[in-house]
TrEMBL record:
EC number: 3.2.2.21
Catalyzed reaction equations: Hydrolysis of alkylated DNA, releasing 3-methyladenine, 3-methylguanine, 7-methylguanine and 7-methyladenine
Name of the protein: DNA-3-methyladenine glycosylase II
Domain HTH araC/xylS-type: 87-185
Enzyme class name: hydrolase
Cofactor: Zn(2+)
Record SMART domains: AlkA_N (SM01009), ENDO3c (SM00478), HTH_ARAC (SM00342)
GO cellular component, one term: cytoplasm
Highest taxon, organism lineage: Bacteria
Entries under PROSITE patterns matching the protein: HTH_ARAC_FAMILY_1, HTH_ARAC_FAMILY_2
Pfam family name, one: HTH_18
GO MF term list: alkylated DNA binding; DNA-3-methyladenine glycosylase activity; DNA-7-methylguanine glycosylase activity; DNA-binding transcription factor activity; methyltransferase activity; sequence-specific DNA binding; zinc ion binding
Length: 497
């Protein structure tokens, strides 16, 4: 990945927060690397190097700045939206695939040899898959050290390290201090919520229109799985190693996330899925500038800057919602999905009692005041449901089952690393799934930023409200000026409707 020195240096000199996560600043005279917005004195040109990833900076022998914490910067919007192999690989690494399946597992998921995958990642990010996963493990370890009372050995294995020695060496190399010193630097703050509960900040690039995100999620919230209450989105998750519950509260400059995990190894996947759900790695200024160039959208963008694309914590869930929502209202689709959830018993998350007002996940057998939120159904579970569980016509029921079987077998990959073009082709090959459904899945499950749904009734109503063409073909032609952010235009049209 080529980084223009002058442009990067200007961003550092102006402490431009928009570039956090796009690149990292290495200061050779101090041996540290920072985010562009670091408040420290601007380093001299001759002492600066720029890196496309934190892993690349660490590979050059630099440690993370203790002041700006570059390891906690938002992810690069480039890797968040790119549909090529590198973008897919970065999303899978963030979801913990290397920690669970190793580099061979990552390469298999992407359909490339390990050697070729390593070469591509090195060329674009300055680091291979192991180095990228190691950088993520270091950040996970720091979060656990600073926000939990777990012992260092427990943290080492929860963060994905193979040994305590590897954990100690990595923390010393990346942060320039011993793990125990990181805990001391926390200042003796108490660990909120007891064992299994972590509270942290999820950074984003401003602006963030939090109300639009919460409105969208609240309208579609499924009882027992998710709810929006007092400005906070609560959600049950089914993660690789167990159940979890998250509470996400938008705030100035960050989203406060309280994660209640049955297994600490799920911290990195939980954070990745929360960031993806709220689209926190987007570049809202670039998106809004493109959309505001259209006079029909200019007023809406000015009135509501920072509209995000609500995504999904589970690709199959987004696809099932899309199929169930075909030609019915959001309320009707919600009723049908609630019936499905009721018909399929799912193990409840281990929510047992409250400590300091927070639910503790680590003490089974104790009474609790309210049941925890559970995760959504898995594809294999939906495929096995009886006919009575489906409150829909027989044709749509068979479409749901065909989709569930295809996802369960791996024929359709709806994970963050799925190939968007291949997924679209395979989805539309399923009887009962057309371009609208496949496009909706591409938007919410795969995070495609450039999907238009011109035949969608709400999109056409929103277009009419903004003085845009309502004929699908004419609207499609007009929307060419919105590329590559047409998915964000769809969200704005839905809000206008």
């Amino acid at each position: 990945m080529e980084l223009d020195f002058e442009r990067c240096y200007r961003a550092v000199d102006s402490r431009d927060q928009r570039f956090d996560g796009w690149f990292y600043t290495g200061v050779t005279s101090t041996g540290i690397y920072c985010r562009p917005s670091c408040p420290a004195m601007t380093p001299k040109r001759q002492n600066v190097r720029f890196f496309p990833s934190a892993a690349a900076a660490q590979g050059a022998g630099l440690r993370a700045c203790r002041r700006c914490r570059p390891d906690a910067a938002p992810g690069s919007p480039q890797w968040d939206v790119r549909a090529d192999v590198v973008g897919r690989a970065v999303r899978l690494i963030a979801d913990g695939v290397v920690d669970r399946d190793g580099v061979p597992g990552l390469a298999t998921r992407l359909g490339y040899t390990e050697r070729h995958l390593h070469r591509m990642l090195r060329a674009e990010l300055g680091a291979g898959p192991l180095a990228l996963a190691r950088a993520q493990r270091a950040q996970t370890a720091r979060t656990l050290i600073e926000t939990t009372g777990l012992g260092m050995a427990e943290i080492a294995f929860a963060a994905g390290f193979g040994s305590v020695r590897q954990f100690n060496d990595t923390v010393r190399e990346v942060f320039g201090t011993a793990p125990s010193e990181l805990r001391v630097a926390r200042g003796g703050r108490s660990v909120a919520g007891g064992a299994g509960t972590i509270t942290l900040r999820l950074a984003y690039r401003p602006p963030l229109h939090a109300a639009a995100l919460l409105d969208f999620l609240a309208l579609r919230a499924l009882p027992g799985v998710e709810e929006v209450r007092d400005g906070t989105y609560h959600r049950g998750l089914r993660l690789p190693h167990g159940a979890a519950e998250v509470a996400l509260t938008p705030a100035a400059g960050h989203v406060s996330a309280t994660l209640r995990l049955a297994d600490m190894r799920d911290l990195a996947p939980a954070v990745a899925r929360c960031r993806r759900l709220l689209d926190l790695d987007a570049d809202p200024q670039a998106i809004d500038e493109t959309l505001a160039a259209d006079p029909a959208l200019a007023a809406a963008v000015a009135a509501e800057p920072g509209i995000r694309l609500p995504r999904a914590v589970d690709g199959f869930e987004a696809a099932l919602r899309a199929v169930v929502g075909q030609q019915v209202s959001v309320r009707s689709a919600r009723t049908t999905l609630t019936r499905l959830l009721t018909a399929a018993p799912i193990p409840q998350p281990p929510v047992d009692h409250e400590v300091d007002g927070e639910v503790n996940l680590q003490n089974p057998g104790q009474p609790h005041d309210r049941p925890g939120l559970r995760g959504f159904l898995r594809a294999a579970e939906v495929a096995e449901l009886p006919d009575s569980a489906f409150g829909m016509p027989a044709g749509r029921r068979e479409t749901v089952r065909a989709l569930a079987r295809a996802v369960a077998s791996g024929e359709i990959d709806l994970d963050p690393g799925g190939d968007r073009e291949e997924v679209f082709r395979r989805l539309t090959a399923v009887p009962g799934i057309g371009s609208w459904t496949a496009g909706y899945v591409a938007m919410r499950a795969l995070g495609d930023p450039d999907v238009l749904l011109p035949t969608d009734l709400a999109v056409r109503r929103g277009a009419a409200a903004l003085g845009l063409p309502t004929d699908p073909k004419t609207l499609d032609t007009h929307a060419e000026r919105w590329r590559p952010w047409r998915s964000y235009a769809v969200i704005r049209l839905w809000r206008a409707a």
